[in-house]
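Subject: Protein record for review, amino acid sequence with backbone structure tokens
Why sent: The fold of this protein is of interest and is recorded here as tokens.
Enclosed: The protein record, placed directly beneath this head.
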Amino acid sequence: MMPNEELSEKVKAMSEQAVAMAADVFEIRLSYQKEDMDLLEERIFPVLEKMIAEGKINENGTVQMAVFFGAYLGELILRSFAAELGYAWHDEEDGPPRIVCGTNKFNPLAKVRKRLTQGSGDDIRPFYDVCQKVAQGGFQ
């Protein structure tokens, strides 16, 4: 499967929606740095999680938040370490786009959706760490 440049551009645009929302709604500047995960986990996701639990964000809104912030997490992973190791966005027939290299696949959009709907027990920081370890050959 070849990387899809059009898909990559679409995902980058979705991640920029997360950056804009963080700035406009939360007054937080996201800059594609690993430290941004602390801002997401400690300041943005708890608010979104509460709004979802209270019904202030419906199912479509939840999906949209997961797509935007999942795309952001994916772009953060690619820019931090994965792209230089050959990873890229790929369209998947069985769900959202994933970051793929060989047989390794990371699904940041699903991870963020799970985080928003199931709480802080699904923290994104360990996901990032596992992706990095896998990408660097730490798990064989």
Summary: The mean pLDDT is 93.
